[in-house]
Amino acid sequence: TWVLCRLKNAIRSAFWANRSAMFYAFKKDRTLDTMKLAVLATLIASATAFSVGKINVGDAVKAGAVAGALAVGVTATPAFAADVAAGEQVFSANCAACHAGGQNVIMPEKTLEKDALDQYLAGGRKESSVVTQVTNGKNAMPAFGGRLSDEDIANVAAYVIKTSETGWDE
């Protein structure tokens, strides 16, 4: 129904919007506590039950199932969409000393260019591989897992992958 659809869209966008009301519901490890998720699921179920027009039983059942799962202590870890612009800022502050312009001052053959990432990055040229490399470090590259948040690392990964596709400014 229209009300449920609007509510779902608002919730989805709030999960990924920095500094939104939903953002503050996350703990440091980006999981919602069980009580907050149960309240959220109850609100969705209520919106379904009181929406104008016909009630979509499937949506009501799904919302009820979520509420039931939360009642027994199951928590969810929603993904957040990486922010390329924020990734560029984090990259400039933390990575550019060695990787300015997509280069590598320590190991010149291992650049951040598309072909080099395909060849040298464990797991291939994808965001999850960059996240692993940045989090854990490798060879001369230090680990940033303890220094940057998971969100910052995901943003840097998105920036590196996108810029490797569009080309680095020299």
From TrEMBL:
GO terms for molecular function: electron transfer activity; heme binding; iron ion binding. GO terms for cellular component: chloroplast thylakoid lumen. Keywords: Electron transport, Heme, Iron, Metal-binding, Photosynthesis, Thylakoid, Transport. It is found in: Plastid, Chloroplast thylakoid lumen. GO terms for biological process: photosynthesis. Its main location: plastid. The keyword Transport applies. SUPFAM superfamilies: Cytochrome c (SSF46626). It comes from the Eukaryota. Residues 82-164 form the Cytochrome c domain. Functions as an electron carrier between membrane-bound cytochrome b6-f and photosystem I in oxygenic photosynthesis. This is Cytochrome c-553.
